[in-house]
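Tokens for chain A. Residues wanted.
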């Protein structure tokens, strides 16, 4: 089996992407090539020439349904950047995942294969899956992880544990930020499948923003988030994030590793 690197706040090296560090689990290169890397369906989301609508499939273990505030926020953020004239729909499904313990990136991809209702690219519909299983990631400091171009897992047990004794930030606030953060990685942020003209990538945490007011800030996806001692965590893409997405959409910023291009 191919060697694996999963770092709490980083990204994993793959042959189609620069060496990054982040909330990513990418291993077994043939599988990664087939399913794409995080950011591999960025253009499919930003462009409407092929995929005119989008589905956010929320699959959760019994008792692990995400907060409504989190999924509503996710929908708002994606509607603000993805060009989908026929809309973005959210579908919730209670799911019996076979794995109830520690999760690896490979485990998440296998569970996605078993539970995802349709292909990520089905006709004119783009589908991204957000899984909420029981248990924790193999690195227990990881709150959320993107494992391929269309799949994210969030670990509510770890999110609950990240809530400090003052509940500032609360588990709900943490979930809100982490969910949008992982969606940002599916959008290719920051510099996953492109190089931004703006200097806003944290050199110590590649794939993440150096701006603590951006939802793509490196600390958002790890247990370090409890050190904020503030109930108002970042939940929005900052101006540099938005400018990157606009540049990718209009072609002024070059992009790589796409599973689909207009």
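Reply:
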């Amino acid at each position: 089996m191919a060697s694996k690197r999963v770092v709490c706040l980083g990204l994993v090296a793959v042959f189609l992407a620069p060496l990054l560090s982040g909330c990513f689990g990418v291993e077994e290169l043939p599988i990664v090539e087939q399913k794409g890397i995080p950011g591999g369906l960025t253009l499919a989301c930003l462009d409407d020439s092929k995929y005119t609508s989008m589905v956010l499939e929320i699959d959760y273990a019994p008792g692990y349904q995400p907060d409504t505030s989190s999924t509503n926020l996710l929908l708002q953020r994606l509607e603000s950047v993805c060009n989908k004239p026929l809309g973005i729909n959210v579908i919730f499904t209670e799911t019996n995942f076979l794995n109830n313990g520690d999760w690896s990136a490979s485990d998440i991809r296998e569970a996605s294969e078993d539970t995802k209702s349709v292909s990520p690219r089905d006709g004119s519909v783009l589908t991204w899956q957000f899984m909420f299983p029981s248990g924790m990631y193999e690195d227990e400091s990881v709150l959320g992880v993107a494992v391929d171009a269309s799949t994210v897992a969030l670990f509510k047990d770890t999110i609950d544990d990240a809530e400090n004794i003052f509940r500032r930030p609360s588990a709900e606030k943490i979930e809100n930020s982490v969910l949008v953060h992982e969606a940002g990685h599916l959008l290719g942020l920051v510099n996953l499948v492109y190089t931004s003209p703006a200097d806003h990538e944290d050199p110590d945490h590649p794939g993440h923003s150096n701006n603590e007011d951006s939802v793509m800030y490196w600390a958002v996806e790890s247990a370090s988030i409890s050190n904020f001692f503030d109930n108002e965590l970042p939940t929005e893409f900052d101006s540099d994030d938005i400018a990157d997405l606009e540049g990718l959409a209009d072609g002024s910023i070059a992009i790589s590793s796409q599973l689909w291009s207009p």
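DSSP finds seven helices and eight strands in the chain. Residues 29-250 form a domain with the Collagenase (Catalytic Domain) fold (CATH 3.40.390.10).
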